[in-house]
Structure to design on (494 residues):
């Protein structure tokens, strides 16, 4: 299965041969056999969450559970005459597809460390505290992240830059990190979903058989009401939530200013990264430039910080890139905020994504993903049933295959003819894939998107799930519009 993780190289996905993305089917595999690995996986995950406090197998429980699920899937495959080579091929294809995301994760870890010791993050918090008050903070987060994500086409980049800063500012104001992360993710995925630069925004219409801008225009029908409701909800949360940071702002500002050399010049680094991304520079290059720029600024603006962190300033920079860094202040709240795990802090997430890809690869290799989707397709008799089945398939594949792109490609190819047979224009399918596949991936802890966002923002999926309002509301909106037959475009209307 070929996957596209990044459109920043300015290649339109319509130029990619979508038909080469094979979906493996296995007629000898029954639906019950296909479901065995899923049931085992879900049971173990549920037990781990509800009864073992997340540590049934120690600190890497989710990774081990995914490998167990993959082992069970392999056994099912062997009993159904699937060769080891076929399963291995799909695993390798999956692992190959996450090479760039893994490198991005490592660079994000390095970015967080260098932006801390250079004073970039403290400067963002320092000035942000003076501008963003608790009464408007959460809706402002949504809007800021939506704008950045539309401009860059990437929810990942948005979280790794302004998202990290907003978490810091909001935490200092005493706002729940779950709420902040939910607002950041809601805005980031709105922009990711609507931006013509986004990979998924290009992938969905290419799979469904419509063009990019028709797809974007048609998405506004469900997306605009959803983001308006999201903004209203966060507005209410901002006005009604109790915060503990208002009275402490002067003390926080004093602590930051006494620890770091705070100057507006520090904003050159994040602005340079954003400009590079807007210029369609590859994310690895843009983030790498951010790391190098921050390292240089650390020497220029924070020599005392570097001296206090290591035997030499260069050693302090290398440490901030690779491992844990903690900068002590005279404020306990800031001590927790001004810490970073560097690249080392991303290892847990990288292992989780790797294990998820192994499980998804075996499930795809034995034909289980196609079998499950085919059964769902067979029970869709009405137009609403077809929409509902597509939504369920996307949600299920986000959980089973642990990958946002599989959750778009497999249902898209499986349901394309069914939408045509019912006289539905292809943009109905492309919009549904985005409403249920793209935005819900971040709600699954072991999905690549959920693992990435929780790691980068430092907030678990369980903490931000309910506050990622735009993400979980989008599938309900698309189903409501389908049930009421609002703006459901037929082929004859084209």
């Amino acid at each position: 299965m070929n996957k596209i993780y990044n459109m920043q190289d300015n290649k339109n996905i319509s130029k990619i041969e979508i038909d080469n993305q094979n979906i493996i089917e296995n007629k000898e595999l029954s639906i019950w056999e296909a479901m065995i690995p899923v049931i085992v996986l879900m049971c173990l995950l549920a037990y781990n969450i509800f009864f073992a406090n997340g540590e049934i197998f120690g600190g890497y429980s989710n990774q081990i559970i995914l490998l167990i699920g993959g082992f069970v899937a392999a056994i099912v495959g062997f009993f159904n005459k699937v060769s080891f080579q076929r399963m291995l091929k799909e695993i390798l294809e999956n692992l190959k597809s996450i090479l760039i995301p893994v490198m991005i994760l490592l660079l994000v870890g390095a970015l967080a460390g260098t932006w801390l010791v250079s004073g970039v993050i403290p400067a963002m918090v320092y000035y942000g505290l003076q501008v963003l008050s608790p009464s408007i903070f959460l809706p402002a987060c949504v809007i800021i992240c939506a704008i950045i994500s539309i401009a860059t086409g990437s929810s990942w980049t948005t979280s790794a830059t302004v998202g990290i800063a907003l978490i810091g500012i909001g935490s200092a104001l005493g706002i729940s990190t779950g709420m902040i992360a939910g607002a950041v993710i809601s805005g980031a995925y709105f922009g990711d979903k609507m931006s013509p630069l986004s990979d998924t925004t290009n992938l969905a219409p290419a799979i469904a058989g419509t063009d990019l801008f028709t797809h974007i225009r048609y998405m506004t029908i469900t997306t605009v009401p959803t983001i308006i409701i999201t903004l209203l909800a966060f507005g209410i949360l901002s006005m009604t939530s109790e915060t503990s940071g208002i009275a402490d702002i002067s003390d926080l500002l004093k602590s930051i200013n006494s620890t770091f050399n705070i100057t507006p010049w520090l904003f050159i680094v994040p602005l340079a990264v954003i400009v590079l991304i807007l210029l369609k520079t590859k994310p690895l290059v843009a983030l790498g430039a951010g790391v190098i720029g921050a390292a240089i600024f650390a020497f220029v603006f924070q020599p005392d910080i570097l001296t206090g962190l290591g035997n030499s300033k260069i050693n302090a920079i290398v440490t901030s890139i690779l491992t844990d860094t903690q900068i002590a202040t005279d404020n306990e709240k800031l001590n927790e905020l001004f810490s970073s795990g560097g690249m080392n802090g991303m290892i847990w997430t990288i292992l989780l994504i790797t294990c998820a890809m192994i499980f998804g690869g075996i499930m795809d290799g034995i034909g289980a993903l196609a079998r499950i989707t085919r059964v769902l397709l067979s029970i869709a008799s009405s137009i609403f049933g077809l929409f509902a089945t597509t939504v369920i398939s996307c949600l299920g594949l986000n959980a089973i295959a642990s990958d946002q792109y599989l959750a778009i490609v497999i249902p898209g190819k499986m349901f394309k003819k069914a939408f045509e047979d019912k006289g539905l224009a292809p943009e109905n399918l492309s919009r549904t894939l985005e409403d249920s596949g793209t935005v819900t991936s971040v709600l699954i802890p072991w999905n690549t998107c959920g693992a990435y966002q929780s790691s980068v923002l430092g907030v678990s999926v369980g903490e931000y799930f309910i506050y990622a309002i735009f993400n979980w509301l989008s599938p309900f909106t698309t189903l409501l519009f389908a049930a009421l037959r609002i703006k459901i475009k037929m082929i004859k209307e084209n």
Notes: The first strand starts at residue 56 and ends at 59. Residues 100-344 form one domain.
